[in-house]
Write a structure and sequence with these properties.
The complex is a heterodimer of chains A (422) and B (82). Chain A is an alpha/beta fold and 422 residues long. Chain A has helices spanning 9-20, 26-39, 82-99, 118-131, 149-158, 170-176, 186-197, 218-226, 257-272, 280-289, 340-345, 347-353, 361-364, 369-372, 394-414, and strands at 47-51, 103-109, 135-142, 161-165, 205-211, 232-236, 278-279, 306-309, 314-316, 330-334. In chain A, helix 5 (149-158) links the parallel strand 3 (135-142) and strand 4 (161-165). Chain B is mainly alpha-helical. Classes of the chains: A alpha/beta (422), B mainly alpha (82). At the A-B interface, strand 2, strand 3, helix 9, helix 10 and helix 14 of A face helix 1, helix 2 and helix 3 of B.
């Protein structure tokens, strides 16, 4: 069977051109992809991002869903229908069986996923448990403002791990995370987190995610997040690129304000020495410096094994690509007509399995490429040259990684261990 | 970006000189940059955050080896933080 049958070739080819930054590259990309397929016959998806709701009750300034280049949310159903949910789960089951996958992750996402009614959640979870012959781990990323006792009961029943998005204290959070009328979302988020932490689902509350805003004091942000006693905190670089540069980095001038911001927190976290709190971005850098093959979407070179299912059943590449250009994540596939092998075969997904070979020459020759992985894909984008550029945060990533390496080196030297070379 | 790369190399050279590891025979900076997990005993590390990272990296590496032996490009947990 031709896994690309039915695929919207024009759209995929268009994506390839942007990815490679070359002229008429469709054929070349396909040729290369054939080679990749031969080298990676077992490439499979393990993480399925389910967009159960396409809208949000907040209107965060930096949101890649609503305030970036891609506006596809406007034409999608507000909530994933039963028909789409059934088809999506059946396709996941098909993929699991075909590839002998033992364990998968289904992440509920949006928009704000809690805008989907509880019945939608129960149906999806029940159907997944019933149809998918593998261990299914559920998780959700929420702004916490819509958490109710009914949702908490669902989290408990299906052991859904919960990640909460919050940017720090009230002042920091209000910089960007406001509702549709411009009002602060902070109190509602606090109420939701409080409800969660006082419930039987508290052990499922496993992390907090904050998007970096240079206007906020980093240590105040860190303290505010620690207040909720999460076991895991993560910081995200805002999804900017070379055409839409980050605040504070309007040009390539060698400055690294985002690294400076993060270094303050790294030093505090590292010196506190409390291993019960993981700051994920930092720990991932440390693990990669230690030679780990582990990777996340934003670091390292291992292939990303994630695929997105939109509320209308569209199968898409990583959704943060929405920050780059209109239609960027579009593969021309949907769960009604295509299996996930079609997605695996598409050039846009195959690029993500190429590792170092998908990066710019500058990145491929750089000393830290095994750690930074070229930076998060959306942050590499430039209209003229596609994704084959260093990240717009290149200077920041380099400075931060070297800083972390220096701190680690000092302690490894102190312990009398060489450990210099991977 | 060339400036960044040049700066990177310069800084890295300084790092390596300071650490006196230029004699390890590595042929690229990439090889030298990362620490060798096999040479590290986590029990000797005072800093708990570093110790934990070493333990986590050890687990990742072991699990990676298992997955590789099954010819799978699998991950060992969700690789996504949303």
């Amino acid at each position: 069977m031709d896994p690309t049958s039915g695929c919207n070739a024009a759209r995929v080819s268009g994506f390839s051109k942007r990815l490679t930054g070359m002229g008429d590259v469709g054929v070349q990309a396909e040729t290369r992809v054939e080679g990749v397929t031969e080298r990676l016959p077992q490439a499979v998806f393990h993480t399925f991002l389910m967009k159960v709701a396409s809208r949000c009750n907040l209107s965060c300034d930096y949101c890649y869903m609503y305030h970036a280049a891609d506006q596809s949310w406007r034409r999608r159903p507000r909530v994933m229908s039963e028909e789409t949910r059934d088809a999506a789960i059946d396709r996941i089951a098909e993929h699991v069986v075909r590839h002998g996958v033992k364990e998968i992750h289904i992440t509920f996402h949006g928009g704000e996923p809690l805008l989907a009614p509880p019945a939608v959640w129960r149906h999806l979870c029940d159907r997944a448990r019933e149809k998918i012959p593998a261990k299914v781990n559920f998780s959700v990323q929420t702004n916490a403002t819509l958490i109710t006792n009914e949702f908490i009961s669902i989290f408990e029943n299906y052991q859904i791990q919960i990640g909460v998005s919050l940017d720090g204290d009230r002042a920091a959070n209000d910089q960007n995370r406001r509702d549709l009328t411009g009002k602060s979302s902070y109190n509602k988020a606090l109420e939701g987190i409080g409800l969660l932490r006082d419930s039987g689902a508290a052990p499922l509350f496993n992390g907090m995610l904050a998007v970096i805003d240079l206007r906020n004091d980093p240590l105040k942000v860190y303290d505010a997040l620690l207040h909720f006693r999460p076991t895991l905190i993560d910081f995200l670089l805002p999804l900017h690129n070379h055409d839409n540069r980050p605040p504070g980095k309007e040009s390539d001038n060698g400055r690294h304000p985002y690294s400076d911001w993060m270094k303050s927190i790294f030093d505090r976290w590292y010196e506190d020495g409390d291993a019960s709190i993981t700051v994920r971005f930092f720990q991932d850098i440390m693990k990669l410096l230690l030679g780990s093959e582990f990777t996340v979407e934003s670091l390292g070179l291992a292939p990303a094994d994630l695929v997105v299912i939109e509320t209308d059943g569209a199968i898409e590449a990583v959704d943060s690509l929405k920050a780059t250009y209109n239609g960027a994540p579009d593969l021309g596939l949907n769960v009604f007509d295509h299996g996930f092998d079609n997605a695996l075969a598409s050039p846009a997904i195959q690029e993500r399995f190429l590792g170092k070979a998908s990066l710019s020459e500058t990145c491929q020759e750089c000393s830290i490429v095994e750690v930074c992985g070229g930076g998060y894909m959306p942050t590499r984008y430039r209209h003229q040259s596609g994704f084959r550029n260093p990240s717009v945060y290149c200077e920041d990533l380099f400075d931060l990684i070297m800083h972390i390496r220096r701190r680690m080196s000092a302690d490894l030297e102190k312990a009398g261990q060489g450990a210099h070379r991977a | 970006m060339m400036k960044t790369t040049a700066t990177a190399d310069l800084e890295l050279n300084e790092e390596l000189t300071n650490l006196k590891v230029l004699d390890v025979g590595a042929d690229t900076y990439g090889e030298i940059l990362r620490f060798d997990l096999k040479e590290i005993d986590a029990g000797m590390i005072e800093n708990a955050v570093l110790r934990d990272a070493i333990q986590q990296a050890t687990k990742d590496t072991a699990m990676h080896a298992v997955h590789q032996s099954h010819s799978s490009y699998s991950k060992y947990g969700s690789n996504l933080w949303l």
